[in-house]
User: Fold this.
Amino acid sequence: MIKRMFAIIILVVIMFAFWLAYLEIGELKNEYAKNYYLDKGFEETGSKNLVTAIYLDYRLFDSIFEAGILLLAVTGIMFMSKNDERR
Amino acid sequence: MRISLILVCISRLLYPFILLFGFYIILNGDKSPGGGFQGGVILATAFFITYFIDPKKIINLKLLVKIEKYLFALILIVACISYFTNGEFFTNFIPVDSPIENKRIFLILLNFFIGLKVTTGLIAVFSAFIEEGR
Assistant:
C-alpha cells in the first residue's frame, strides 16, 4: 500500500512538471539551432548528412556515451548469463 | 534443431552481400543516410546468418567483449586528438579552415570504429542468448 502511494505521488509530481513545461512551450520554441545547422553544417563539418554532422561533430560527447551504454549493456548481459541461479 | 537445406544455401549466397552492404552503409555514412550505428547492426545480422550455416559453432565471448572494450578506448582516443590540433575536446581533429574533403577523414574513421564496436557488442549479446538456449 505504501509502495503504491509512493508511486502515485511520483506520478503526480512528474505530471505537474510536464504541465509546467507545456505552459511554456510557446515561449521556448525557436528555430535558431535548426537554421544554424542548415546554414553552416556542411562547411563546418564536411558532412552532407546532417545527422552525421551532429552526432560526430557538434554532439560527439553525447554519442561517445551512447556507445558506452551499449558496452555497459553487453557486459551486464554477459554477467547475468554466466551467474545464472539454476546452474 | 534441424535446418532446411534451402535455407542454408540461401544464407551462404546472401552472406557476402550483407557484409558488403553493411560496410557500404558505414563508409558512406557522411554523405548518405546511415552511419556507424546502423551499419554495425547490419554487419551483426550478417554474422547471425552464419548460425544457420553452422548451428554448432562456438564463439569466444570473452574475446568479443575484450575487443569491444579496446574499440571503445580507441573511439575515446580519436575523439580526444582534437585537443592537440584544435585546442578543444570532442570535435574534428582537422583544422576548421582546411578544405572540406579533408574533414571527411575524421568522420569516416570514427564511423568505422563505431560500426565495429556496435557489431562486436550485438554479436556478443546474441551469442550469449544462443549459449543460454543450448
Observations:
- The mean pLDDT of chain B is 90.
- Chain B touches chain A at residues 29-35, 37, 61, 65, 68-69, 72, 75-76, 79, 89-92, 96, 100-104, 106-107, 110-111, 114, 117-118, 121, 124-125, 128-129, 131-132 (CB under 8 Å).
- The first helix of chain B runs from residue 5 to 27.
